[in-house]
Amino acid sequence: MFFGIIAFIGVYLMPLICILFVVKSVDLAKQIKNGDSDTAKNTAWVAITFTIIIYTLVTFAWVNN
What we know:
This protein is mainly alpha-helical. The protein is 88% helix and 0% strand.
């Protein structure tokens, strides 16, 4: 059951999650460059998407090992 959810995320949702990660990272970089102090929302999105990407990759490597 657990691996089925991770496999679904890895196969079908990972491209969308990666696009979201890149877009929010660029938005965060622009906010930092412009001196905007309200970066919490984009920082949270970048942290969450990065965690999902890494967790999915590690789970695939662990299961296929």
